[in-house]
């Protein structure tokens, strides 16, 4: 029996495109369904959450998750990645170095933010380096006329920010934490504030005025919201 997005607690954004808001940190995960393929955007905050995401995504897609795009290297977006065995994993250039050399910092950040120590240890031990590193733009052919464009639009929220544009009516842009709706954008020690407004300009150029923009946390927004947040960030960080 075919299940609907709503039955699984997902929000349908366009034909074959949707997202869910995960509990705990209100982190977004996105799904793009192709022909015999499925692209998941971000993987959740733990291996257990990754399993729940995989199960829901496979129910909606009618098959396994074949592609995984990681928008940036924060625990609530990447710690579930290891459960997607066999998927082609994509991230911005430099994500591999973070996973290789900054695991202790990733674990500490997760625990500091409330992830149980055992869950953090398990996820860090299982973390695998993305096979595909995006330096500019990378178009995925998902079959059935479905494409997705991966764009390295950072740095901004981190030094390694990846956005995902899904053409269609409407176009959908998964922004990662470059855009946040449920609270003020968070600028941690790995943020690049001077470049963040430029990254939002690149997002707006990708999606245009009529796209649906999906923040890393919070409700989907429009171009006007992204533009306001861009101006607020520029003022906050003194960027001309």
TrEMBL record:
Protein name (record): MBL fold metallo-hydrolase
Superkingdom, natural source: Bacteria
Sequence ranges assigned to domain Metallo-beta-lactamase in this UniProt record: 26-217
UniProt-listed SMART domains: Lactamase_B
Organism: Streptomyces achromogenes
Pfam families to which the protein is assigned, alphabetical: Lactamase_B
């Amino acid at each position: 029996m075919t299940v609907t997005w709503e039955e699984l607690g997902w929000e349908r954004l366009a034909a074959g495109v949707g997202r869910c808001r995960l509990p705990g940190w209100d982190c977004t995960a996105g799904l793009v369904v192709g022909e015999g393929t499925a692209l998941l955007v971000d993987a959740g905050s733990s291996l257990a959450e990754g399993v729940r995401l995989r199960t829901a995504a496979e129910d909606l897609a009618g098959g396994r998750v074949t592609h995984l795009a990681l928008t940036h290297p924060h625990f609530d977006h990447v710690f579930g990645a290891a459960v997607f065995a066999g998927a082609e994993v994509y991230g911005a250039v430099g994500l591999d170095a973070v996973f290789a050399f900054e695991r202790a910092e990733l674990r500490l950040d997760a625990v500091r933010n409330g992830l149980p120590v055992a869950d953090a240890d398990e996820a860090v031990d299982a973390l695998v380096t993305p096979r595909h590193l995006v330096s500019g733009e990378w178009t995925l052919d998902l079959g059935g006329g479905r494409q997705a464009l991966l764009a390295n639009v950072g740095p901004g929220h981190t030094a390694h920010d990846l956005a995902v544009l899904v053409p269609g009516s409407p176009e959908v842009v998964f922004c990662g934490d470059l855009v946040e709706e449920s609270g003020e954008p968070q600028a941690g020690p790995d943020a690049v504030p001077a470049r963040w407004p430029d990254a939002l300009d690149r997002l707006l150029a990708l999606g245009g005025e009529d796209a649906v923009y999906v923040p890393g946390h919070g409700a989907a927004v429009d171009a006007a919201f992204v533009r306001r947040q861009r101006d607020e960030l520029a003022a906050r960080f003194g960027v001309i």
